[in-house]
Amino acid sequence: MGAIAAGIAMAGAAIGGGIGDGIVISKMLEGMARQPELSGELRTNMFIGVGLVEAMPIIAFVISLLVMNK
User: Fold this and answer.
1) Over the chain, what is the mean pLDDT?
2) How many other CB atoms are found less than 10 A from the CB of residue 23?
3) Which CATH number is 1-68's, of 3.30.43.10, 1.20.20.10, 3.90.1300.10, 1.10.357.140?
C-alpha cells in the first residue's frame, strides 16, 4: 500500500512540476516579447522560479520514500 501511495505522490508531483515549469517559462517568454530590454532580468528570475518549482518534486520524492519504507 505504501508503494502505491508513493507512486501516486510522485505522479502528482511530476505533473505539477511540469505544469509549473511550463507556466513560468511561457510567462518569461511573453515578458521578453513585450519588453526585450528586460530579457536579462527576466531570464534570471525565470531560473530562480524554475528552481523553486523543481524543488517540489524533489521534496515529494523524499516524502514518498519515507512513506514507502514505513
Assistant:
1) 91
2) 12
3) 1.20.20.10
